[in-house]
Design goal:
By secondary structure, the protein is mostly beta strands. The protein has no helices and 23 strands.
Length: about 300
């Protein structure tokens, strides 16, 4: 799709009408224009990528409220059999300032979201899980370790300038809500940290990160001490985390992970820029329920 300012909404792509069966395409939706909105579509069973944002003309597009790699209703299963063959969303070759938000992206044969040779693309509030590759993959080359030397030349295939992901410390609290600590390193500026939860996660020494299935809360941090080719850093502690309308959410074992998104400009009220990969996970430590009311 090369036209611009087009709404693509309420379609079944790669499925029969109603979404009950598979009618795969080679690829789902290809966008090479600007200011398009891809909203509320079911995009599953396709042989390659579900959505591609491709080329430097693909700017300012919004991908939101889509179901990617799943059936319309995951009641009877198996939900895993509906994934697209490669990535859920691929952003590449100079595509910039495209927002991916509030989508369910699961069970695809590649990454949930992959970014290759493209920058300034923000992602937030997505449910990303069960994909064969990374949840978010900058460079489409597997998990990207943080690098605090801002003077290095990025590889050609870098995604979102290979922005660092947060480093999480202790997470814990009650059934409905808790807090998390950690740190973030990057160049000077404001950053949005989005927290997610997962039912399981790779170990800290594994070669990949987890995938954020459940959206939690977010916060903002500012870095002011970068200089001399070295990133600055900021620590955070006692940041509240919770899941909306889920008062017993943390009664089940949960892992917490996070992304970082740079704000454009000099304040946290401006537009968002590029988003990181998911961080490594922190196991949520459930506080003892015995003293929840202050007495035995």
């Amino acid at each position: 799709m090369q036209p611009s300012e087009v709404l693509v909404e309420n379609n079944y792509i790669g499925t029969t009408p109603g979404g009950g069966g598979a009618e795969p395409n080679q690829r789902g939706i290809i966008v090479r224009g600007f200011n398009n909105r891809i909203r509320n579509n079911l995009i599953s069973n396709n042989l390659q990528n579900a959505i591609e944002l491709d080329d430097s003309l693909a700017t300012g597009n919004i991908v939101e409220y889509n179901t990617i790699g799943l059936p319309p209703l995951c009641v009877f299963g198996p939900c895993e059999s509906n994934g697209n063959g490669l990535h859920g969303v691929l952003i590449q070759d100079g595509a910039a300032r495209n927002t991916v938000r509030n989508n369910d992206i699961a069970y695809n044969g590649g990454d949930g979201i992959a970014v290759v040779a493209a920058a300034d693309n923000p992602f937030y509030a997505n449910a990303i899980y069960g994909n064969s590759g990374e949840g978010i993959d900058l460079g489409d080359d597997g998990f990207t370790a943080n690098n605090n030397d801002s003077s290095i030349t990025l590889p050609v295939q870098a995604g979102n300038e290979n922005i660092n992901s947060p480093v999480l410390g202790t997470a814990g609290g009650g059934a409905a809500s808790g807090t998390i600590a950690g740190s973030y390193s990057s160049r000077n500026g404001w950053y949005r940290l989005d927290f997610y939860a997962a039912d399981s996660c790779p170990s800290l020494i594994a070669a990949d990160a987890g995938q954020g299935r459940y959206r939690l809360t977010s916060t903002t941090v500012q870095i002011t001490n970068a200089g001399g080719g070295t990133d600055g850093s900021v620590s955070f502690s006692a940041v509240p985390i919770s899941r909306a309308n889920a008062p017993t959410f943390f009664d089940q074992p949960r892992y917490v992970l996070a992304t970082a998104t740079r704000y454009q400009g000099t304040s946290p009220s401006g537009p968002l820029s590029g988003t990181s990969e998911f961080s490594k996970c922190s196991l949520y430590q459930r506080s003892a329920a015995l003293f929840a009311n202050g007495f035995e």
